[in-house]
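Issue: copy button drops trailing tokens. Both records pasted manually instead:
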Amino acid sequence: MTKNATAWLILLASAVLEAVWATALGLSDGFSQALPTAVFAVTATLSMAGLGIAVKSIPLGTAYAVWVGIGAALTVGWAMATGVEPASPLKLLFIAGIVGCAAGLKLLPQDR
């Protein structure tokens, strides 16, 4: 596996962890619940570390946009799947747009 491919895998894993820490943050009730607070702390640290590693090979703007976009889409998707947030066709369309834009950034040639 190439260094660039590894960086993209690390970035995607970090984006998944972003969704986990965002969900845990919501469940922590202002950091008053021990388990969600611990999950938040661990996954936020790992997510940021992964982003930091990924930007050694992927331009920062691209990496950050993908990290935030995928993390946000997964967070909203999980909230809809668990009934915390209502789903709608338009909401699903816009989430698909976020994911599509993140994928598009991966497909662009790198100037680095």
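Record 2 (pasted manually too):
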Amino acid sequence: MASSARTIFICFLVLLNSISWPAKAAAAGIRLIRRDSPLSPYYNPNATVSDLATAAVESTMERVRFFQARQKSAFLNEDAQVRVRAGTGEYLMEFQIGIPAQPVYAVADTASELIWVQCAPCPTCATKRPFFDPSASLTYKPIDCSDSSCTELPTSYCSRNQVQCQWRESYGDGTFGNGELATETFTLGSLFESQTIPNVVFGCSHLAYGLDDDESGIVGLNRQRFSLPSRLRVSKFSYCLVSPNDDTVGSLLILGSNAVASGSSNTPILTVPGQEAFYYVTLEGISVGGDRLPIPENYFQPTKNGAGGFIVDSGARFIVLQRRAHDIVVKGVEDRVQGLKKVYSRSREIHLCYAATYAQLENTPQLTFHFKGADVVLTTLGTYFLQDTGVWCLGVVPGDSISIFGNRAQSNYNVGYDLEKNTISFASAECGTF
């Protein structure tokens, strides 16, 4: 009798998952956890302040290399095989996959499209943490080679005589993830009401080479077809990142109707040919302590060869500025900070450091980024980071041509993305109180 009941239940779930649902979540509130926070499953209690600072700089520069490689591929009209490594991401998203649900952590990334996770079995995967096990789910369904999801995803492929669609992400440093493309039931959020969404297309990686121990997957939040907002058919999302020194609470990502994606400070999202996925905006200038710096506006504009531009990004830790603009900002801050002792930086990418206390830094001139239609005043912790005990550095690094508004600068702001109006909004907020 029990066996018959279970068979009926399984048939019901399979039928439920086979229906072509509209896949629209009214609102999903999802906790984001900073990778190096004690709340993170990847937290390393032995990491020193210096270790964390070095890792932050390295991951930011890796992010720069990623964007520049994508720009080059778009300009040369090449099939862009360079993808973001999850290790360069900063914020982990908690969600569940399958029925019965299995908990998963993956990087929330505004520059990526496909959702993918490491799956069991994966004999070559570095991490020893539990993977998503598709064999334990009643609703896991591989995608056929004839399916439009397989034919339209740039990183999918089918070998001769193959029935199931395969997927491969190749990274610029020779590492890769490889597996099958499938659909599965996702359960998102617990802050408002959990949303269960069937038939979400994702990559299930069974083969990995060179990935780090804490690289478990990515949730794409860009504007392309296979990103999470597109899969949910929501037109807006927002996040509110807590202060970098707040390790007691997580940050918040909201998708759908409850997202705050409009206000008095909105800047248009630009469309750059070949790079429509990224969130390019217009930066008109930068001020230090109310003084507008002499930076030509064209320093932040995309060039005809596909380089340059200014991108709002969740993955880069620090602000990245086109090299000439970077030098002007560093000098502008240095000229206006009085009474603090300059000290040597451990990193060649970080050009301005002070021996100071946090209280002393709070009295230094603030940086303001003047976007078209929106002025964003950086907090002290959005401007400086602790490189070593008693040493604070300006969190701005040089890029060859590209500029990026990193996540640290976005902390304690509600950042809203309206994908219908093509705008990004910024509103000052105490994100730790949400």
